[in-house]
Design brief:
The chain is α/β, with parallel strands linked by helices. 34% of the residues lie in helices and 22% in strands. An eight-stranded antiparallel sheet has the order 3-2-4-1-10-9-11-15, with helices on one face. The chain is globular, with a radius of gyration of 25 Å. Bound molecules: fructose -6-phosphate (F6R). The site of fructose -6-phosphate has 15 residues, from helix 9 and helix 16.
Length: 607
């Protein structure tokens, strides 16, 4: 999704902006642009192109000097991907340039008004109204900061913006409302970006802006303000991710790197959180004592896409280990249906990026209604993490590939810890607590064992990749695994994949089964094994081919992937891994853009 980079300091801005934009490429985009201001000449130069950052770099001439600048990668919402619609956008006299993430909801009305006053628009975007509005308000005031503040008062919608003015070549003004902006503090230079990924090459000292805040960056520092111009005090914090996290590390794709990292990333999620003496989980960040943890009568989990599916695994874990009714729902649905918020329900929001707008809006709605919300989030200091009352960080490191893998397994592991905690303050026995603690500790080694089967899984992916569609089925604990397996396959290989509870097959989708519609069946060795094997028999009786993922081989299936057995509650985490590798190799076999699948963005910061 759209990305912003800004720089002010003593150096040439363009290479820094281009490098920053490259670091944001993983988020998905269709065009890119930069604008710089040369201090002595007070002149603004801009280049923008439809296409990749490399195309932009090729379009930037050698003489593109300036020590202040802004850059952008655009993901089209209003208007097709084109050179004109790419950001930055200029005002009429080309003095002011802006880049914008988010959506201006009243853009049509503002545009009409501006056009009525004679303004000629150069793009179809909602964002361009901002450059013209700021040009107007700048005539009423002496500072760019105040001009931006006044213009933003006229705007309804979400934004992260960065603004430069050739007449004020020493400063960049940034502001946020619903779309992230992070400031990076350097040595006599300042940066800003929509994502720390663009900053870590230059600095690890960052400051997150809150919604409604505006910041003025100068080479020698920064000031932050509320929307009504009151100065705010901000504490910088140190990001522990570095550029190495954003390299492919010798792997062909980020996705394969991130799948392969999982023994380590799940280990990091668990590290220091398992207590062997009392067989409990230490989750300092949830900010709840035992009494409070006991007081909840329900748990409601919200997230989007794969985060939601990991929440389904979480709900199952909480019901089984803590015996509290729990369910998961897409955050995007939850926020729109005016949910009843109960005081004795614990709400849990899941997000890898911590930026997903639907999840953030759902958390904000919950907070408005007095709900108690925990976050299970990967990105430290992100908007969702800050909005929640407490939570669990995944510590999985940045996830670059658009399709989520390591964040999924780490979230499921974090839920196991939360379920253990909620269980042990209730009726989960010490013996069961120990069983889960031991099981959790075995996970990293068992994930390693699954990864050694990559060649076998690759061969299966090649065998099935050319089918027109695939069915994924699982029962109870296996169902969210099936959903995530189908999600991975469809998003990166574009093979149609449908997930169903195994028990529902005969109520409709069995009609689809034929030799061209193979089924991936998730069949753990649990109390439902026999029922699952019966389902396989039903599929075979309709000439359906079956790839079974479970803990044993069977003649009922054409092919099997056998994963190591853990405790039944934790098995879903391990059963997910082969499906990630299967989807990856199917996508490679079909020649797909694995890390940046078509039409998708890494973090969905719009509604
Ligand atoms: C799928 C995928 C998406 C995300 C979803 C939520 O592989 O990556 O479905 O899970 O967009 O993103 P976060 O977790 O950043 O809130």
């Amino acid at each position: 999704m759209c990305g912003i980079v800004a720089y002010v300091g003593p150096k040439d801005a363009a290479p820094i902006l281009l490098e920053g934009l490259q670091r944001l490429e993983y988020r998905g985009y269709d065009s890119a642009g930069v604008a710089v201001v040369e201090k002595s000449a007070k002149s603004l130069k801009m280049r923008k192109v439809k296409g990749r950052v490399a195309d932009l770099a090729a379009a930037v001439p050698a003489r593109f000097k300036g020590t202040l600048g802004i850059g952008h990668t655009r993901w089209a919402t209003h208007g097709v991907p084109s050179d004109q619609n790419a950001h930055p956008h200029l005002c009429a006299d080309e003095r002011i340039a802006i880049v914008h993430n988010g959506i201006i909801e009243n853009a049509d009305a503002l545009r009409q008004r501006l056009e009525g006053d004679g303004v000629v628009f150069r793009s179809e975007t909602d964002s361009e109204v901002l450059s013209h509005l700021i040009a107007r308000t700048s005539k009423e005031t002496d500072t760019l900061e105040e001009a931006v503040r006044r213009a933003l008062k006229l705007v309804v919608g979400t934004y992260g913006i960065a603004v430069i003015d050739a007449e004020r070549p020493g400063e960049v003004v940034v502001a946020r409302n619903g779309s992230p902006i992070v400031l990076g503090i350097g040595e006599k230079e300042m940066f800003a970006a929509s994502d720390v990924a663009a900053l870590v090459r230059y600095t690890r000292q960052v400051v997150h802006l809150e919604d409604g805040e505006l910041a003025v960056l100068r080479a020698d520092g920064f000031s932050t303000f509320t929307s009504d111009a009151r100065e705010t005090a901000k504490e910088p914090f140190t990001v522990d991710w570095d550029t190495g996290h954003y390299d492919t590390g010798g792997y062909e794709h980020y996705l394969l790197k991130e799948i392969s990292e999982q023994p380590d990333t799940v280990g990091r999620t668990l590290r220091g959180r398992i207590d062997d003496r009392f067989h409990i989980a230490h989750l300092g960040g949830i900010n709840m004592d035992a009494r409070e943890s006991r007081s909840f009568r329900r748990v409601k989990i919200i997230g989007c896409g794969s985060a939601y599916y990991s929440g389904q695994i979480g709900a199952q874990l909480i019901e089984e280990l803590a015996r509290i009714p729990a369910d998961a729902e897409p955050a995007s649905e939850f926020r729109y249906r005016s949910p009843v918020v109960e005081p004795d329900t614990l709400y849990v929001a899941i997000s890898q990026s911590g930026e997903t707008y639907d999840t953030l809006a759902a958390v904000q709605e919950l907070k408005r209604k007095g709900g108690r919300v925990l976050g299970i989030v990967n990105t430290v200091g992100s908007a969702i993490a800050r909005e929640c009352d407490g939570g669990v960080y995944l510590h999985a490191g940045p996830e670059v590939s658009v399709a989520s893998t390591k964040a999924f397994t780490s979230t499921a592991a974090a839920f196991a810890l939360l379920a253990l905690h909620l269980g042990r303050v209730r009726d989960l026995s010490p013996a069961d607590g120990r069983r889960i603690c031991d099981g959790l500790r075995r996970l990293p080694e068992q994930i390693k064992e699954i990864l050694t089967q990559e060649e076998h899984i690759r061969a299966l992916a090649l065998k099935y990749a050319h089918c027109p569609g695939m069915m994924f089925v699982g029962r109870v604990r296996g169902y969210p695994v099936a959903r995530e397996g189908a999600q991975k396959l469809k998003e990166i290989s574009y093979v149609h994949a449908e997930a169903y509870p195994a028990s529902e097959l005969k109520h409709g989708p069995l009609a689809l089964i034929n030799p061209d519609m193979p089924t991936v069946a998730i069949v753990p060795d649990d109390e439902l094994l026999d029922k699952n094997l019966t389902t396989l028999g039903e599929i075979r009786a309709r000439s359906g081919r079956i790839l079974m993922v479970g803990h044993r081989t069977t003649d009922q299936a054409d092919d099997c992937i056998v994963v190591p057995k853990n405790e039944i509650e934790l098995d879903p985490i391990l059963l997910t891994i082969p499906l990630q590798l299967f989807a990856y190799h199917a996508a490679v076999a079909l020649g797909r853009d694995v890390d940046k699948p078509r039409n998708l963005a890494k973090s969905v910061t719009v509604e």
